[in-house]
Amino acid sequence: MKTSVLHKANTRGHANHGWLNAYHSFSFASWYNPERVQFGMLRVLNDDTIAAGMGFGTHPHDNMEIITIPLEGDLAHKDSMGNASTIKTGDVQVMSAGTGIQHSEFNPNHDQHTKLFQIWLFPKYRNVTPRYQQITLDVTKQKNDFAQILSPNADDEGVWIYQDAWFYLSDFDAGFSKKLSLKKEGNGFYIMNIEGKIEVNGEQLEKRDALGVWDTKEIEIKANTNAKFLVMEIPMEQ
Predict the structure, then answer these.
(1) Is residue 132's pLDDT more than 90?
(2) Alpha carbons 213 and 230: distance in angstroms, whole number
(3) Where is Fe cation bound in this sequence (predicted)?
(4) Which residues does the annotation place in the binding site for Fe cation?
(5) Which domains does the chain have, with CATH numbers?
(6) What's the predicted TM-score (pTM) here?
(7) pLDDT for residue 9
(8) Angstrom distance (rounded) from CA 177 to CA 124
(9) Burial state string for 93-112 with b = 16 or more CB within 10 A and e = fewer than 16
(10) Residue 63 phi, psi dihedral angles, 5° rounding
(11) What DSSP character marks residue 158?
């Protein structure tokens, strides 16, 4: 019985709008793949490069948990709740869209592109009051460890969302390996390899490859080269 799915980097949807070069792990905008609509409650994982001085104009969201992780450069954010801030590499931002929110996102730099992951999860609760949170991560915790950056708990490490999900960022040295156990029974793992080469339960992942795993209580990740990656523990059902 199948308990994993491999998403190679070159199988993602791709749209290059000039100002935006986007790769979609799951069906998004004009790219639709009936086999790539979601992984459990994970609906969107976009790998975006935004040109200098460009960005997304004001647009609405509702009933979605939206997480932004800058990989290079900065992102200027404004929203209908009155938040105006710049997210930098090493930060993580979350919006619980709830009953509805409007926001814009721009690359404020005129000489550097911005690279980021934008991730959408279906919420555990619908029509909540919209909220915004942004923190700066201690990247030293990512070295040869699973540094928690997101959870369902407001008093836990990282940002929090309205979903039983946990995210970790890691920076492993070549040859290092470590196991990670599920926080909640019935959840699955979705691992996005940011750079380098890793092995997850024996499956080889290169840059921007991803692996979804379910019906397991733990995973083991080994770095075959120096590697950075994102691990998401995701509810498989609501």
Answers:
(1) yes
(2) 14
(3) 59, 61, 103, 105
(4) 59, 61, 103, 105
(5) 4-235 (2.60.120.10)
(6) 0.97
(7) 99
(8) 33
(9) bbbbbbeebebebbbebeee
(10) 45, 55
(11) S
